[in-house]
Structure formats: structure tokens, C-alpha cells
Design a protein that fits this description.
Layout lengths: L1 E6 L3 H12 L4 E7 L2 H10 L4 E5 L7 H11 L4 E6 L3 H10 L4 E4 L4 H12 L7 H13 L11 H11 L4 H8 L3 H14 L5 H10 L5
Parallel strand pairs: 1-2, 1-3, 3-4, 4-5
Helix pairs in contact: 2-3, 7-9, 7-10, 8-9
Length: 210
């Protein structure tokens, strides 16, 4: 029996995932969490084979939870299920140790196939993402500028590009406005840009924000 922990802050999403999984004879949802901290606590105490984790939950970011889980329970496979398109987070979460990345628009069969593959220690990558990774290798394409950013810098960059002020970002991430300002300077330097407007243009062009 594959024992699954579902971590998502939307009760409707958790209920939907549970209904899909409970139709499969060799799978069971044996734990649920509505935020990052709860996901970590349940994973520490419970005996799970797989965690299905939303990337954007209140409190600790999904990427931070993923890294902590892989650090504390390396044997636990983590599938990331997100509302964000693949190009925004897939490569980043796979690098951080996830066993796969699925968007919430994925078909139920795809979720089950991903759980099954991850439970055997494999990595689940959609055909479109596999194609992109193969193309990048084949063309020897250099890493895009946003891939040079740390996970926190990337998070701040996306928030700046979506029009949030330094103060709003600070409140959301529990950081001071001064810290956000430091991040902004570092992001601009790494991406060889001079203004937030340039960041916004770049993020829109590369599909990093809606």
C-alpha cells in the first residue's frame, strides 16, 4: 500500500485529490496538511511513502518545505502539485529534490502515474518538460538569467515583476523592507538590469508571471 500525505491550503483541492487516490486499490491518503509547518510536522511523525505538496502555501514557501523534507527524510518521495505552469518552477523543484512536478490542470491518470513512478524511486517528468530539457541540452543553451537566482531571489523577483511594492513583499515573506531592498539590488545585478520595469518585461516575456 502506497501511503500518501497531501499538503495543500485549499480544502477543496485536498478533498478532490483524496477522492482520486481513494479509487486506487493500492493507494491511501494517510495524512493531510493545510500549511507548510503542518506538512513538516506530519511528515516527521508519520510513516508516508509520498508527499504531494503544493508549492504556494501560507507561511514557509513550498520550495523551503521541499528542501527541509529532503534533508530530514531523504527516503520520502515528494511530488509537487502547483497552479503555476511548468516553466515557472519545474526545473527549480526537480533540482531541489522533487520526484516530479505536476500542474493542477493535470489529468487524474497523470497524478496516479506520477505517484506510482515516484513510489518506486523514479522521477516523473511530463512529455513537454522532457522535450524542453532535451532541447536545452541539444542546443547547449546557456542557463537563462533567472536560473542564476537563488530560490528566495527568484521568489522576490516574481513578486516585484507582478507589481508588489517592497513593503508588501516584506509583509508577505516576513522580512524587513531593507532586506527586500537588498534582494532587489542583488537580483538586478545578477540579471544585469537597471530597474523593476526591466524585470517585469523579462518575467512577462519568459512566462514567469501571469
Amino acid at each position: 500500500m502506497i501511503k500518501i500525505l497531501i499538503a495543500d491550503d485549499h480544502p477543496v483541492v485536498r478533498k478532490g485529490l483524496k477522492e482520486i487516490i481513494e479509487d486506487i486499490p493500492d493507494m491511501v491518503v494517510s495524512g493531510e496538511a493545510s500549511n507548510g509547518q503542518e506538512a513538516l510536522e506530519k511528515a516527521r511523525k508519520g510513516d508516508f511513502d509520498i508527499a504531494v505538496l503544493d508549492i504556494s502555501m501560507p507561511g514557509i514557501s513550498g520550495l523551503d518545505i521541499l528542501k527541509q523534507l529532503k534533508d530530514e527524510k531523504p527516503e520520502l518521495s515528494v511530488l509537487v502539485l502547483s497552479m503555476y505552469p511548468e516553466e515557472q518552477y519545474a526545473v527549480r523543484v526537480l533540482r531541489a529534490g522533487a520526484s516530479g512536478y505536476l500542474t493542477k490542470e493535470s489529468a487524474p491518470e497523470e497524478l496516479i502515474a506520477a505517484i506510482r513512478k515516484a513510489s518506486k524511486g523514479g522521477k516523473y517528468i511530463s512529455s513537454s518538460l522532457a522535450e524542453k530539457l532535451a532541447f536545452d541540452l541539444e542546443t547547449g543553451a546557456g542557463r537563462p538569467l533567472h536560473e542564476t537566482l537563488s530560490d528566495r531571489e527568484y521568489q522576490v523577483m516574481r513578486m516585484i515583476a507582478s507589481g508588489k511594492t517592497g513593503k508588501e513583499i516584506g509583509v508577505e515573506l516576513f522580512l524587513s523592507a531593507k532586506t527586500i531592498s537588498t534582494y532587489r539590488s542583488r537580483i538586478l545585478e545578477k540579471m544585469k538590469m537597471k530597474s523593476s520595469a526591466e524585470l517585469t518585461h523579462y518575467a512577462l516575456k519568459h512566462g514567469l508571471v501571469e
